[in-house]
């Protein structure tokens, strides 16, 4: 443990000792707390070299003021980042937003701003991570949901885009643009869903096992392979049939016939 840490603990012990003068009803608890700290850190009230000329309250106020200064510096870096963004100096903006985050990790705006830069720099993964960090801090921060919706739309991941746009519309139901974005993403997600075959309900392993266990199927398959192994025309016909059948199924799905 450093001497600075020991000085802080000594200041706490001094504070507890001073409290004994006014908190007589809790004197036993205060003494226990002092003894625990002294044993844990190997200190005694005779370690006067650790004494500092300020009280614990003054130390706390100093720390609070220092934190306030950090927050003010974070605001400045965020503002500089905004200026860089307006001038399309994206790497510089990213650096400033990062500095703001280092100074104040609990402001969702800084993460969302950095996500905007990452998006412009084609770093979707970093942008998504910063948006999610922003939402951990403030789950109702609407701008982060909107940005996630845009990122996922650019990645053609319309289902995720629709989910985030929908959350934005729930938070700001009066915003028509969010509603429009949600409907567009939802429409794209549904359109793409129609073009994909859902095989989740087909147990292919079970189907294969049933066929292989059928003697008639095995005999037919064996005979077919022996007769057609050198006949390229037969295999071309099979290939053409599969391609044609797939086309029919796709057209049927798009037209809503299946």
From TrEMBL:
<protein>
    <submittedName>
        <fullName>Uncharacterized protein</fullName>
    </submittedName>
</protein>
<feature type="repeat" description="TPR">
    <location>
        <begin position="74"/>
        <end position="107"/>
    </location>
</feature>
<dbReference type="InterPro" id="IPR047150">
    <property type="entry name" value="SGT"/>
</dbReference>
<dbReference type="Pfam" id="PF13181">
    <property type="entry name" value="TPR_8"/>
</dbReference>
<dbReference type="GO" id="GO:0006620">
    <property type="term" value="P:post-translational protein targeting to endoplasmic reticulum membrane"/>
</dbReference>
<dbReference type="GO" id="GO:0016020">
    <property type="term" value="C:membrane"/>
</dbReference>
<keyword id="KW-0802">TPR repeat</keyword>
<dbReference type="GO" id="GO:0060090">
    <property type="term" value="F:molecular adaptor activity"/>
</dbReference>
<feature type="repeat" description="TPR">
    <location>
        <begin position="142"/>
        <end position="175"/>
    </location>
</feature>
<dbReference type="InterPro" id="IPR011990">
    <property type="entry name" value="TPR-like_helical_dom_sf"/>
</dbReference>
<dbReference type="GO" id="GO:0072380">
    <property type="term" value="C:TRC complex"/>
</dbReference>
<keyword id="KW-0677">Repeat</keyword>
<dbReference type="InterPro" id="IPR019734">
    <property type="entry name" value="TPR_rpt"/>
</dbReference>
